[in-house]
Amino acid sequence: MARQRTRDTVHRAVLSLAGEGRVGAITMEGIAARAGVSKQTLYRSWASTGAILFDALLARSLDDDGSVVLPDSGDLAHDLEELATGMVAELSDPTHGPLLRAVTAEMQSDDALAEEFRRLLLGPQMKAVSDRLRRGGVAEADDVAELFVGPVLHRWLLRSRPFDTGWVSAHVARTMRAAGVV
Amino acid sequence: MARQRTRDTVHRAVLSLAGEGRVGAITMEGIAARAGVSKQTLYRSWASTGAILFDALLARSLDDDGSVVLPDSGDLAHDLEELATGMVAELSDPTHGPLLRAVTAEMQSDDALAEEFRRLLLGPQMKAVSDRLRRGGVAEADDVAELFVGPVLHRWLLRSRPFDTGWVSAHVARTMRAAGVV
Amino acid sequence: MARQRTRDTVHRAVLSLAGEGRVGAITMEGIAARAGVSKQTLYRSWASTGAILFDALLARSLDDDGSVVLPDSGDLAHDLEELATGMVAELSDPTHGPLLRAVTAEMQSDDALAEEFRRLLLGPQMKAVSDRLRRGGVAEADDVAELFVGPVLHRWLLRSRPFDTGWVSAHVARTMRAAGVV
Amino acid sequence: MARQRTRDTVHRAVLSLAGEGRVGAITMEGIAARAGVSKQTLYRSWASTGAILFDALLARSLDDDGSVVLPDSGDLAHDLEELATGMVAELSDPTHGPLLRAVTAEMQSDDALAEEFRRLLLGPQMKAVSDRLRRGGVAEADDVAELFVGPVLHRWLLRSRPFDTGWVSAHVARTMRAAGVV
DNA sequence: TTATAAGCGAGACGGTACGTCAGGTCTTCCG
DNA sequence: CGGAAGACCTGACGTACCGTCTCGCTTATAA
To answer: Locate the HTH tetR-type domain: which residues (chains A, B, C, D) (predicted)?
Structure first.
């Protein structure tokens, strides 16, 4: 509904706000002020700050690559390691990380946002992973994908431990064993 | 600072609010009104709704059993299955589940709360799990505990899929394989 | 900043509150509730209850006559008597009186309000009185104006005695003697 | 009811608070804290901050001279000038002035306080003035006392003008003319 | 060329909640 | 056992945002 120009302005505003600290303190008024846009313009296109954050996140993901593309070298272990390293990097990114954190938080009490998140971001990514696993000969590919991604998010969302080096390789090895392909 | 009587009243209020819908909409004023307590009394003892929710959650956990007690029948697979089933039940509980969801959400932007959560709830529970694994002969017990718990939380926090029956057994089997004890 | 419609609503609310008892108990919240207006709307235009009361008082004064108009019959004694009678009537008015009392009280600890009061209400009125005196041939017109008005306010603010009949004429006579025009 | 020791402590606390700025911001809690006394102790003896301020004011007046004593040299004009100068000095005093200002403000909406003020402070003083006038041969002594004191309070309470030098003498002269004794 | 509208910024508005302060009352506990 | 310490309920404070709404000022088309 909003013109692309407006969307871009808003995205830029949101990213700049997200990059300068407390993502939880992002408000409609703040975004409007930063973007030099009226509140009406925001409400015309988005239902909540969560929706804007998610939209910005999505736009950012699509800027990098039109769709989800995973490494496929033929060597499953190698690809999984590359994949996990990429995830860790993304979650540790000073802009992307907090943004994703905020969206995940809002999802907990916003069903519509959760649905969008699953449909447009999480679903395709999980599917890409399980496809790669399936191509590698893994039987219960969906479940193993979850086994692979779950611990990463556990560590990140529950903020239990930083991602120490060395952990990724060990995790890949464990995943391979669980998948029964080693 | 707050008297035990007051704490109990507040916990009861919070649980009743949590049980009746939108946990994200819980406010200091709402809790005060429901508990028949003044806002000052809340602020004297807790810094945020998140802190109150967490305190209630903790009190509830400690009501059931003074400390973390896990099944220990000697049969690791059997115990893990029981453990996972218990977790799923807890996360699906109409009061406990939403409460935990809200706390997890607030943790994303409240470092102090996150620290408390780790120290008093998550830490001891993860330690209990890894202790049980270690007793069962698992080498990388901490990491395997994460591998075991991670996918459960992934499914629940990202709201990707319900906990279908049969999944638990398969998940335990995969965990055992990853741990190298089968 | 506030629209005239809003100002009017607020003035009406304040006058109704002032008319029904304890002027000292007038609060921002009370005014907002009575006027059916949000607190923000009040704070956007006025700094304190005192400022609102004063604004209402001023609007009320200007409703009656655009500016300060005093009797000018040519007979100074007669005009002063009319003037004093008018003042007494105003101070005894069940709405105007308490309002003025409250504003005077707040002035004692609010410099900005005191300044406004002097500039827009007291100043013009005192000037009108001294102008009339000067036209009547009084030399130290400003000081005599003070001599004329002072005892009225003394009696009213210190709440020493009611305005008994007969006092006004005697007071006018004394003022004329002091002014040296009799 | 309160022991003299306590009363003194509280008076000292009130005076020190009054001397350091915003008299309007004096609170029961503040006085209790400053005096090292519990709130209960205050409420046991005084009904409001106004009552405490007034009590302190009264104690201070009585410290100087047990009762109201006015100059009586035989020369009325001279005595009035001395009296007026004393009043101006008192109203300009950095502690006494603000205290009196605060009490006068609270009187506007506290009938009990107003009654006490009239009975114990204003009444005796006005009576002393009119007695002196009567001794000087003034007929309407009560009214002339009001004529004498009124303009001083007008200037001070309505904060219209500072007490410029020279004004006092002129004011005394006008009062004498009004009283018909010149 | 002039109206006539559509689109948008600005921000007033009624609300809800925030976090704080003080008012009074009541309880606890120490000297 | 009297008084300080302070927890407690209450009510108001002044502020931040919410989501809706009206107002005027462009800017672009239709008379």
So the answer is: 4-64
